[in-house]
Amino acid sequence: MNFGATGNRLKKRTVTGGLLITFEGGEGVGKSTQAERLFRKLDSYGIDVVLAHEPGSSDLGNHVRRWIKRANSPSPLAETLLFEAARAQLMFELVQPALSKGKIVILDRFIDSTIAYQGYGRGGEIKTIQHLNTIATAGLIPELTILLDIDPELSLARVSNKPDLFDPSNKNPEVRIDNESERRFEQAPLKFHKKVREGYLKMSKGDRRWCVIGADQAGHRIADAILKRVRRSLTNHGVPEELLKS
C-alpha cells in the first residue's frame, strides 16, 4: 500500500495479512525496552504498527498480570489457564483486528513464554500448554520471534536495580518501578531461571522463525541487530528497502 494524504494526515503503510513479531526472554533481558525501540523505529518509517504486552494490554490481561505477580505460587496449570484466558482476550480485542487491517503487531511475550515459564520452568505438561496455546490463538504463530538470551545470573542483576552491566557508559541506567511484592517470577530460585533459559534455547534451535540475540551487549547494538532482522521480514512483505534505510 502506498503512502497517501488523508486531509493533513499521511496514510500509514500496511502489509497484506499483517505481521506478528514477538519478543521473548527471561527476566531482566531488556525485552520491553527493545520492543518499544522497535515500535518507535517502525512508526518513524510510516508503518502502521501496534505494541502490546502479555499478560496485559486489556482489562482482563491487566487483572491477570496483577494477580499472577502477587499470588502465592498457584499451580502451573492454574497459572497457564489464566495466561491463556488473557491471551484469548488480547487476540480478540487487539491482535486479530490489527493483523486483519495489515498492521505490524509487536508483542512483548506471547505463546513461547507460557511454554518456557509454566512448562520448562514450572514443570507443566508441554503438550497440554501447546494445545492451550493453539486454542487461545486459533493457531496463530508469529512470523518472527526475537529471543534475547543471556546467563540469568547477569540478567537478574538488572532486576535488583543494580547499574546497567551491559553499558557501563550509561550514567542513568533504567531501574524497575514495580513493587518488590510484584516480582514473584524475578524472585524465583536461579534454578528456575536456568530452566526457563534452557527451554527457550531448545524451542529456538533449528526453527527459522526465531532470531537469537545475545543480551550481554550495549542496548544500541541489540537494537541494530533486531532492526536488521526485522527489515528482512518487512522487505519479504513488500515494504520497499529504501523506506527502511534511515
Please sum up the structure shown.
The protein has 246 residues and is of the alpha/beta class. The chain is built from eight helices and seven strands, in the order E-E-E-H-E-H-H-E-H-H-E-H-H-E-H.
Describe the structure.
There is one protein chain. By secondary structure, the chain is an alpha/beta fold. It has a single domain (21-241), classed as P-loop containing nucleotide triphosphate hydrolases (Rossmann fold, 3-Layer(aba) Sandwich), CATH 3.40.50.300. 47% of the residues lie in helices and 13% in strands. The chain contains 8 helices and 7 strands, in the order βββαβααβααβααβα. It has helices at 31-44, 59-70, 76-100, 111-121, 126-137, 152-159, 190-204, 219-236, and strands at residues 5-6, 9-10, 19-25, 49-53, 104-108, 144-149, 210-214. The strands form 2 sheets. It has a 5-stranded parallel sheet with strand order 4-5-3-6-7, sandwiched between helices. A two-stranded antiparallel ribbon has the order 1-2. α1 (31-44) packs across α8, α2 (59-70) packs antiparallel against α3 and α3 (76-100) packs parallel to α5. The longest helix has 25 residues, at 76-100. Residues 1-8 and 162-182 have low confidence and may be disordered.
Helix count from the secondary structure assignment: 8
Strand order of the largest sheet: 4-5-3-6-7
The CATH homologous superfamily is named P-loop containing nucleotide triphosphate hydrolases
Strand elements, count:
7
State Rg. Answer: 18 Å
List descriptors.
alpha/beta; disordered N terminus; two-stranded antiparallel ribbon; single chain; five-stranded parallel β-sheet; 246 residues; 8 helices; Rossmann fold
